[in-house]
Amino acid sequence: MRDIHVKPVSYYPSENLEYPMMTEPQLITPNELFYVRSHFEYPFVDVHQWSLSIEGMVVQPLQLTYQDLLKMNLVTLPATLECAGNKRSLWDKKAQGVQFGLGAISHAEWRGVRLKDVLEQAGISNQAKEVVFQGLDSGQRPDMEEQVFFERSLPLEKALHPDTLLALEMNGQPLPFKHGFPLRLLVPGYYAMASVKWLHRIRVVQEAFKGPFQSIDYVILEKPNDYPHAKPVSSVVINSSIASPMEEEEIAIGQHVICGYAWAGEHSVSKVEVSTDGGKHWREAQLLDPDIAYSWRRWSLDWRVDQPGVYTLMAKATNELGESQPMKAKWNSKGYQNDAVHVVHVHVADAKLTENLLHGKA
Ligand SMILES: Nc1nc2c(c(=O)[nH]1)N[C@H]1C(S)=C(S)[C@@H](COP(=O)(O)O)O[C@H]1N2
Ligand SMILES: [Mo]
């Protein structure tokens, strides 16, 4: 064996992985391709030692094992998860945070216990206001002295919603480790920071939770550090992305399919319009998937192009309330919720280049 000296890594960075938008559009994201957003090093988890505690403003605190949860009433729910920082790299003016492209979004079929069932078993006291969820992962933030856990809260109403789950399975498999094994919260229709992974502790509290992932991050700041006017990020807004063709792609003269995804959080996507001339004219795309609650819908539009040149493609989705994506998103210093009409520039080759493209020579 060769003598290779590898310098030990003293710090395992947090892992962030995008779903590859350039793959064939699929309704359900395979677990191996599902995007990953993790703020800290992966935690150590031994499922035999692990349990879920429910404490705070409850009548009867509970401690549930993995087996206890598996024995409860399990329900299945498809839901799209989108990171609030999805498309952060697309802002004209740069915003701080992970520079995600189009792929901080994926879709899976989740199976688990209704959070409501567990909370009702513990019995919520009358003074309760919010429910706080703690993951097993913790670490240092650049802006704080002490080590902190990844923790988030939900208002009681969303916590008690029958679709808010304690998810044990993802696409028919036990939750993969990177997605929160053995248990994650699944808050459909909310940006995914709410869906706490490696969940081990639930606290019912009587005051607004102010942890850093609730009050420093995941708030809309119209000006940097304007915390007095911070607004929390919660429900996913109407949005869409063009998956193909890709930005700056070179394509042949002729027949093409423009396709992508549209999603609307707690609402439904009712239509997607596409422009191939920079927004002068719009045509309605075909929706390829049925309208399933909390689920993205693939869409496509056939496009014939006969003249070489640069074309500006745009996609704009509208929800069932009639709300459409804006041409320009409202900038905020942390770059959340980029819901602007998605713009893609494509280069349509001239006749000679088209020949080469079609014969794989380009
Ligand atoms: N415990 C824990 N839960 C977490 C996070 C985390 O870092 N730690 N990241 C959140 C964020 S910001 C997102 S976008 C989603 C990502 O979920 P995924 O990695 O399964 O795609 O998990 C959320 N839940
Ligand atoms: Mo996120």
Automatic annotation (TrEMBL):
CDD domains with a match to the protein in the record? SO_family_Moco_dimer (cd02110)
Q: Which cofactor does it need?
A: Mo-molybdopterin
Q: Which UniProt keywords apply?
A: Metal-binding, Molybdenum, Oxidoreductase
Q: Which GO terms describe its biological process?
A: sulfur compound metabolic process
- Its name, as the record gives it, is Mo-co oxidoreductase dimerisation domain-containing protein
Instruction: List each copy of the Oxidoreductase molybdopterin-binding domain by range.
Output: 39-211
Segments forming domain Moybdenum cofactor oxidoreductase dimerisation: 235-348
Q: Which Pfam family name is an example for this entry?
A: Oxidored_molyb
The organism encoding this protein is Alicyclobacillus tolerans
Q: Which domain of life is it from?
A: Bacteria
The answer to whether UniProt assigns keyword Oxidoreductase to this entry is yes
Q: Which GO terms describe its molecular function?
A: heme binding; molybdenum ion binding; molybdopterin cofactor binding; sulfite oxidase activity
